[in-house]
Amino acid sequence: EAVEHCRVGASIWPWASTQEGEDPQVVLACCGDNLTLETLAAADILRAEAPEWRVRVVNVVDLLALGIPEKYPGGLDEARFQRLFPLGCPVIFNFRGYTAVIKQMCWERPENSRFDVNGYREEGTTTTPFDMHVFNRTSRYHVVIQAAQKLASRYPEAGAKAEALIVEYERRIAEHRRYIQIQGMDPPEITNWEWSRNT
Question: Which of 37, 117, 147, 181 has its Cβ near the most Cβ atoms within 10 Å?
């Protein structure tokens, strides 16, 4: 599976998605090891907190796959691209570098405005690894908040649950800041987090 994933350059991870990633209401996309970990952690939270929401996880290992094949070697044809990122479905893309890279790659795709890209903002200082994600808004908590906002704006019936999640994970971000100021390290629920096939 890993060899095929790398050959194609981008694919759906049904095991990390809800409902095997079918008919998504929001897509969580990621590129880069730490950003993929944060995206998986966000998907894990959403599976536990809102299992009825249809969340698809897409991992990208070759950025050229995002571009149109007429310009980029290895670019996915439009039909295949839309099977990963359906038209009309918001995409939250967690990326290891500058956001302009993803925006440039997707620029010539239809409805490219559906892509919200999180990436390096040149913010932060000497701090903890997770706190750098907080500074750059690529943390699992930020992704959960973004997903809740997207769902609430498109599905009014999800509004109450979405608002509760937004409040909860804004609180977690504030608590994290207080924790590292006192302890000087990330909390155990961050450093010890692992994906569980049972979730």
Answer: 147
Beta strand 10-12 with 55-60: parallel, antiparallel or unpaired?
antiparallel
Q: How far apart are CA 1 and CA 149, in angstroms?
A: 33
Instruction: Name the helix (H) or strand (E) containing 105.
Output: helix 99-106
User: Quick one: pLDDT at residue 199?
Assistant: 47
Phi, psi of 51 (to 5 degrees): -65, -20
Tokens found for residue 37: 């970990």
Q: Which residue has the tokens 């010890």?
A: 192
Question: Residue 188: how many CA atoms within 13 Å on its side-chain side?
Answer: 0
pLDDT in tens, 12-60: 999 999 999 999 999 999 999 999 999 999 999 999 999 999 999 999 9
Tokens of 90: 């918001």
Is pTM, for the whole model, over 0.85?
Answer: yes
Q: What is the DSSP letter of 53?
A: S
Q: How far apart are CA 38 and CA 57, in angstroms?
A: 12
The structure tokens 């290992």 sit at: 61
